[in-house]
């Protein structure tokens, strides 16, 4: 190859390119949904935020509803990661405080549940049966993940909790996490030390037999 020739850079596998484009569209859609709401945000808004044509977006998603469902799936995966991180933590109170801090002051490059988007999807579930079903499935998966952690033997990082008790406690855990997500969107300047003290009072009771 002469010094005037440009090196040939092999193209990324199609699957990786598709994944990258989908992630780009979903990231732009999240920004638009948080800013305008699901109904007000248009494909044109998303295309502008993603810096691509609307026609290109339709190559990856047939309509806006498909984008909404893909975001719910993505947020569910992140919520499961958060639940697993709680299970691996030696201090549940501190783990929840850190989660709240991340939700209330999100960073663009951080993979995390978006509190404002959580509120949007919850509201949309009251209007769209397909979204409601997707969220219900996500709740079922999250609850099962919590139950599995609570029932796991202590030597395996679990709580050794009986199945009939683990389901009730997992429901409380989910309500607590989702409540913190809502609070992060509504009151991002909450005193973290106050939150830490408040959680420390109730967490031991929540995991006790």
Automatic annotation (TrEMBL):
Residues 19-79 form the HTH tetR-type domain. The keyword Lyase does not apply. Residues 42-61 bind DNA. Keywords: DNA-binding. It comes from the Bacteria. InterPro entries: Homeodomain-like_sf, HTH-type_TetR-like_transc_reg, HTH_TetR. One of its GO terms (molecular function) is transcription cis-regulatory region binding. This is TetR family transcriptional regulator. It comes from Luteibacter rhizovicinus.
């Amino acid at each position: 190859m002469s010094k005037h020739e440009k090196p040939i850079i092999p193209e990324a596998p199609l699957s990786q390119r598709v994944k990258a484009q989908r992630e780009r569209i979903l990231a732009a859609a999240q920004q638009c949904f948080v800013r305008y709401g699901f109904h007000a945000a248009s494909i044109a808004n998303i295309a502008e935020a993603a810096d691509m044509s609307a026609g290109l977006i339709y190559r990856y998603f047939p309509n806006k509803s498909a984008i909404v469902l893909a975001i719910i799936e993505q947020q569910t995966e992140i919520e499961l990661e958060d639940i697993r991180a709680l299970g691996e933590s030696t201090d549940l109170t501190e783990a929840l405080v850190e989660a709240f801090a991340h939700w209330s002051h999100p960073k663009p490059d951080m993979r995390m549940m978006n509190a404002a988007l959580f509120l949007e999807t919850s509201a949309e579930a009251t209007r769209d049966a397909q979204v409601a079903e997707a969220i219900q499935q996500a709740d079922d998966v999250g609850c099962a993940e919590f139950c599995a952690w609570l029932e796991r033997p202590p030597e395996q990082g679990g709580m050794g909790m009986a199945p009939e008790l683990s389901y009730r406690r997992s429901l409380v855990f989910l309500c607590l996490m989702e409540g913190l997500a809502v609070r992060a969107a509504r009151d991002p300047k909450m005193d973290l030390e106050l939150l830490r003290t408040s959680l420390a009072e109730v967490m031991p009771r929540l995991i006790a037999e």
